[in-house]
Amino acid sequence: AQSVTQLDSQVPVFEEAPVELRCNYSSSVSVYLFWYVQYPNQGLQLLLKYLSGSTLVESINGFEAEFNKSQTSFHLRKPSVHISDTAEYFCAVSDNRNSGGSNYKLTFGKGTLLTVNP
Amino acid sequence: ETGVTQTPRHLVMGMTNKKSLKCEQHLGHNAMYWYKQSAKKPLELMFVYNFKEQTENNSVPSRFSPECPNSSHLFLHLHTLQPEDSALYLCASSRTGIGTEASFGQGTRLTVV
After folding, report:
1. Going by C-beta distance under 8 Å and a sequence separation of 6 or more, which residues neighbour residue A26?
2. Helix, strand, or coil here: A116?
3. Each residue of A12-37: pLDDT tens digit?
4. CA distances (Å), B92 to each of A67, A82, A106, B25, B34, in order?
5. Is the pLDDT of residue A101 over 70?
6. Rounded mean pLDDT, B61-83
7. B contact test, residue of A3, A33, A35, A44 with most B CBs within 10 A
8. How distant is the Cα of B108 from the closest Cα of chain A, in angstroms?
């Protein structure tokens, strides 16, 4: 079984400030890691994912996340946020064993609401 | 446009009504999911279908009845709901296999009165 902890339920920041949204996971096996974003009145959209290889992954809109196996973390960062980044961000994990049944399911954290103020 | 379309976007129903939520995906995926998103609670996985077969039911009350006639369509039939069932219901689809991500629809905002 896996679990995901997003330590901050809300993160208010000013425009052009840096931001870090924290995510820690717990799993007895190796995992794949994802960040999703949900804008108001919308569904979830994939922001970035870590499957293997380089532990630093980037999205097209300036976000990046680093997989840290020893700390079981996958924190999301952006050096300078925009008003349009205001949204809820969800961290998720999936089992990377080829168990033939549950390996495509995602376990989500509770989400972090990022509010960017002018 | 995510390739997953949910209808209706908004639904208000009485506790004695029967209604259905519809989800359609155009991505060629073979797994489909229903999630419930309530305020201040994590996303709750309700049902999982893989190649039209239900592979998971996370102790969902029987007043929620899913139907998956083919890999592209998923329904959630609702009857005698309670006010606490008011939430955003999200449909998602994915390929099966390790490391695959899900594509989500925009959700149906359900209000039970």
Report:
1. A2, A3, A4, A5, A72
2. strand
3. 999 999 999 999 999 888 889 999 99
4. 25, 28, 11, 8, 7
5. no
6. 95
7. A44
8. 9
The token pair at B105 is 């629809």
H/E segment holding residue B59? none
Contact A44, A99 (CB under 8 A): no
Q: Tokens 């376990």 identify what position?
A: A107
Reduce the DSSP state of residue A80 to 3 states and report it: coil
Give yes or no for a contact between A79 and A71, defined as CB atoms under 8 angstroms apart: no
Q: What is the pLDDT of residues A46-98, one digit of tens each?
A: 999 998 888 899 998 899 999 999 999 999 999 999 999 999 999 999 876 65
Give the β-pairing of A87-95 and A24-27.
Answer: unpaired
- Distance between start and end Cα atoms, chain A: 41
